[in-house]
Write a structure and sequence with these properties.
Structural class: mainly beta
Number of helices: 5
Number of strands: 28
Largest sheet: 6 strands, mixed
Strand content: 35-45%
Oligomer: single chain
Helix content: 10-25%
């Protein structure tokens, strides 16, 4: 009976305390800046809970961080009855940025009815004014791409526009938005890349533009909605291969802040390439040292600035990476924001999020928020890889280093205090594991028993 009660206690705790986990790594300061993992939820560090969570699904493909909340877009998650049909409604799984605590799911509706489109929220993001948007995957038969704004209180979706592909019809998966989708405070630009799954891939890039105050979007390449690229890296490429990602960069001046005239494209068989709106290559990984070259198959990148430094984070490997699992590099760009002059700061996670196939989704989401001023400026970095995990890191001058081995409550000595230590302590009490009494006597009363389990739980829950 005692054993059953203890094991039940651990089972109940695991769901509540999974988000107390960190990656257990210590990241050494670089150029006066520190990096700390705030929490992690993945196959490597919290496998027992993550793999049972609805967020661990191959149709939970993309995620975004905004205003203290993480939104994971999950297509076809919730069974609903519409008339005589049982359909699958899309939802947004939500978590607190601060500590990973789960929040209630947001059921998505359109025109007051459950939103049940196939892969209806394949792509989710935020504009530069805090609006959350979603868009479906579209086939090579669909001539329009609907773009929706999401009411983050109710889940109701509002159609922003039906973006026309013109007379070049390709499949599309992942969009990027810069500016204001409502066009109330700024212009807006939207981009995506055609995804032709056969041969060398697709050379088509789509773009739409709307001025501030405009009612509709128009083609963003001198009035045309698409352009055919002829320049690639490596030069032998003739198109963008599987699941290409596009990411527009902020302009340096106020007047072109949201023009999105420069943008990265990353696809299955190459590293990110920086282009301009004429489809010319501005920069690539050609001059990047070999040790900083990403392993191909994963797509994702983001620029940000902290402490006056131009930073860049990019995916270095997918689940099938050689010695890596769903990780990204954080680097400082070289003079003139060049990729070739980059200096590596850290790899996140230092170990891995996981190495399990996501069925070939390729996309890896990276979001960064920078807040504060001077020495108190902090970058919050969110990394998400479908079907493998997610984590939040913070970067800044005045951050306390992360957990190190020897922490109170670190029963199994893995450098982190979480539910696995509770399991270890329970096994010690049941006589099924050997750990020293000094390590296991959490409350310091000279006896190792169930009261130490309670004390350990309190440490984990803070």
């Amino acid at each position: 009976m005692k054993k059953n009660l203890l094991l039940l206690f651990v089972a109940l705790l695991s769901a509540a305390s999974a988000f107390a986990a960190t990656d257990g790594q210590t990241y050494e300061p670089v150029n006066g800046l520190n990096l700390v993992n705030k929490w992690i939820y993945d196959r490597v560090h919290t496998a027992s809970t993550y793999t049972r969570d609805a967020v661990c699904n191959q149709r939970a493909r993309t995620a975004v961080m905004n205003d203290g909340v993480i939104y994971v877009a999950r297509s076809e998650e919730k069974a609903v009855v519409v008339g005589t049909d049982t359909l699958s409604q899309s939802v947004l799984h939500r978590f607190k940025v601060a500590d990973g605590t789960p929040l209630p799911d947001l059921d998505l509706t359109l025109n007051g009815k459950p939103y049940t489109v196939f892969l209806g929220v394949a792509s989710i993001g935020r504009d530069n004014f805090g609006h959350i948007w979603v868009a479906p995957m579209t086939s090579d038969k669909a001539t329009l791409i609907p773009l929706y704004q999401v009411n983050t209180e109710t889940g109701e979706m509002t159609l922003i526009d039906q973006l026309s592909k013109g007379d070049k019809i390709e499949r599309t998966d992942y969009l990027d938005v810069i500016g204001d989708i409502t066009r109330e405070e700024a212009e807006c630009n939207v981009m995506t890349v055609g995804n032709n799954v056969s041969g060398a891939g697709c050379a088509t890039c789509y773009r739409w533009h709307a001025d501030q105050g405009a009612e509709e979007f128009e083609g963003g390449f001198d009035g045309d909605p698409y352009i055919e690229f002829t320049s690639f890296y490596p030069e032998t490429k003739t198109g963008f291969s599987l699941a290409p990602i596009v990411k527009m960069t902020l302009g340096m001046e106020d007047e072109d802040r949201y023009a999105g005239e420069l943008f990265y494209i990353d696809c299955f068989d190459t590293a990110p390439v920086l282009y301009d709106v004429s489809a010319s290559i501005i920069d690539s990984f050609e001059e990047v040292p070999t040790e900083l070259q990403p392993q191909f198959t994963a797509n994702g990148m983001a620029e940000f600035t902290i402490d006056g430094r131009n930073m860049f984070t990019y995916v270095i490997a997918a689940y099938d990476g050689n010695g890596h699992g769903c990780q990204a590099n954080i680097v400082e760009l070289g003079e003139g924001m060049s990729l070739g002059g980059m200096q590596k700061y850290w790899q996140i996670p230092a170990d891995s999020l996981g190495k399990v196939s996501d069925s070939g989704l390729r996309v890896h989401c990276l979001n960064i928020d920078v807040e504060g001023e001077g020495d108190d400026e902090v970058a919050t970095i969110f990394t998400f890889k479908a079907y493998n995990g997610m984590a939040v890191y913070q970067m800044g001058k005045n951050l306390t280093p992360g957990p190190v081995p020897g922490l109170k409550g670190d029963i199994n000595a893995d450098g982190i205090v979480n539910v696995s230590d509770v399991t270890a302590l329970v096994n010690k009490i049941l006589g099924e594991a050997e750990y020293t009494d000094a390590v296991c006597d959490i409350n310091g009363d000279g006896v190792v028993n169930v009261s130490d389990v309670t004390a350990l739980v309190n440490i984990i829950l803070g």
